[in-house]
Write a structure and sequence with these properties.
This protein is an alpha/beta fold. The chain is elongated and about 85 Å long. It contains 17 helices and 20 strands.
Length: 552
């Protein structure tokens, strides 16, 4: 006996139920033609993840119901194929104080819904808010395909013991887990280890079907996999691409043994690069922007964003603007122009000295007797933001902001200036990782747009905003190695200030950085969204009050 399983590692668009349904139908037809008997789709495949408060709208749920019926109808003739379809299911007769739907998965066969399973465990931490939208139902679902009894689980169900144990007790011989598990660095290893615990707990092999794609600040990395009953990896799909993954489950005496292709694990820098590229490509593509626009300064951050954008979209859809001020070094313009040439993108220069002088003249009477300070520095950033947004309005391209996580944490950025834009590509990338990714990209060309895209001088020059004479970032901030370590401990890991100091960091640095994190929350509330690539970003999983006098 052999059960052929196809995992549909696909990229869905939230709210495009007709398009998502057609993608599933096409996958089912391909799987059937290849001899598959079971097709697994990701969690909430019919509507995309995460649809957030769309789940509270009856019309949205009705459209999901219609799409499920469409998939059932259009696959009715695929004899011998069972389809596990992730979708929301409306709860009938529910109390008004509770959410009106389940996070569900239905087993479709011969055009009929044979079984429907509702997610037991609803995560309500980190980026998740599922208890706001779904009602749990604690009943196992086991169905038979080609003589194998399959226990169905949805994502968080497999991270805890009870649902998997219940499926085993109900007679399951194999666990099928459908997922929409957001990416962060190291998450793939964590997933496989947790699923290994479920396998060893139950004694059952497991197939893990995962979504791929970018959705606002979330990235889904694919890398669907399968584990045998001893916990060994039996199969693994490549990450960050759509793929139909075929797995063979064979009965050897009383046990089920799984075989599939095993893709290698990616390095940290490679997976971060792929995540950022996919996030940009899907944000631009799914929101139907014709292209992107960014201010190219000759500095490290904008250089990295440009390289990511070209890998995501190609050079024809990327436009760069250099906007020198009286404080911009000549080598900054030279390096920006050279990088644009290396990557083949549109490049232009708009000097901002005339606009700066006009603003200063308009404010001269009010500022009389006061020395120049950050006010004039911020004027330069805001002039640049205004020019970029004007070009965006005229040509429709979305502005990519270029600030990194270190700057966003400490407020080393200007509201309505360098923070102006539609998508903040590296807002969750610390400055030290910015440099590491730049060096990695210069040695690797994963998307065929050219090796060594970033001029070496951009990487080796001391970082500077170039808003006053001889300015350096370290005039205002601790060294980035220190800053990033404090941000990680305090912001990502919730370590108390006293513990960070006890770990060997200078008290003055810790007090300064943590204070800056607190007082700049108002800026972050007004920042564009951007992809989450660490275990905690300044986004869905950072919810702190702006008006707040507490520091840990």
């Amino acid at each position: 006996m052999t059960l052929s399983i196809c995992t549909a590692q696909l990229n869905f668009v939230v709210g495009d139920m007709p398009g998502n349904a057609q993608k599933i139908i096409d996958a089912a037809r391909q799987a059937h033609a290849a001899g598959a008997q079971l097709l697994l789709t990701p969690e909430l495949a019919i509507c995309g993840y995460a649809a957030e408060d769309l789940f509270l709208r009856p019309a949205f749920l009705a459209a999901c119901d219609d799409a499920v019926k469409t998939v059932a109808r259009e696959t009715a003739g695929l004899n011998g194929l069972a389809i596990v379809l992730g979708h929301p299911q409306r709860v009938t007769g529910h109390a008004s104080a509770r959410p009106s739907c389940h996070n569900a998965a239905s087993v479709l066969r011969h055009g009929l819904v044979e079984h429907t399973y509702a997610k037991w465990e609803l995560p309500n931490y980190s980026v998740f808010d599922e208890r706001r939208h779904f009602t749990p139902l604690r009943q196992p679902c086991v169905f038979e395909v080609a003589g194998v009894r399959v226990g169905l689980l949805i994502c968080e169900d497999a991270w805890l013991e009870a649902p998997a144990r219940a499926a085993a007790q109900a007679g399951a011989e194999l666990l099928a887990v459908i997922n929409a598990s957001p990416f962060h660095a190291g998450k793939a290893t964590e997933r496989e280890q947790t699923m290994r615990e479920r396998v060893l707990q139950t004694g059952l092999p497991l197939v893990y079907a995962h979504m791929v794609g970018g959705q606002d600040e979330l990235v889904f990395d694919g890398r669907s996999f399968a584990l045998n009953a001893d916990g060994g990896v039996a199969g693994r799909a490549p990450g960050f691409i759509e793929k139909l993954v075929f797995t063979q489950a064979q009965r050897a005496q009383a046990a089920i043994k799984i075989e599939a292709d095993v893709a290698p694990q990616a390095t940290l820098h490679a997976e971060l690069w792929d995540a950022l590229v996919l996030a940009v490509r899907d944000y631009v593509g799914k929101n139907r922007f014709p292209g992107v626009l960014l201010g190219l300064s000759g500095g490290m951050d904008s250089a990295l964003v440009l390289a990511i954008a070209v890998d995501a979209l190609g050079p024809q859809r990327v436009r760069t603007v250099m906007m020198p001020s009286p404080y911009t070094a000549d080598i900054s313009g030279m390096d920006a122009s050279e990088m644009a040439q290396r990557l083949g993108v549109h490049y232009e220069e708009i000097a901002i000295a005339p606009q700066l002088e006009a603003f200063k003249a308009a404010l001269a009477a009010d500022f009389a007797g006061r020395a120049e300070d950050t006010t004039e520095e911020n004027l330069q950033a805001r002039i640049r933001g205004t020019l970029l947004m004007a070009l965006s309005n005229k040509f429709g391209a979305v502005v990519l902001t270029t600030g990194n996580k270190s700057e966003l944490a400490t407020g080393y950025c200007t509201l309505y200036g360098d923070m102006a834009g539609g998508f903040a590509v590296i807002k969750d990338v610390p400055k030290t990782m910015v440099y590491a990714l730049a060096r990695w990209r210069n040695l690797n060309d994963p998307y065929g747009t050219g090796h060594n895209p970033i001029p070496e001088r951009i990487i080796t020059r001391p970082p500077s905003a170039e808003l006053r004479p001889d300015q350096k970032d370290q005039d205002s901030l601790p060294p980035y190695e220190v800053l990033d370590a404090i941000v990680e401990r305090y912001m990502e890991n919730d370590e108390p200030i006293a513990a960070i100091i006890a770990a060997g960091f200078a008290s003055a640095d810790v007090e300064r950085v943590t204070r800056l994190i607190q007082v700049n929350e108002y800026k972050r509330r007004q920042a564009p969204l951007g992809p989450r690539v660490t275990q905690r970003s300044f986004g869905k999983d950072w919810r702190y009050p702006v008006t707040n006098r507490f520091r840990a």
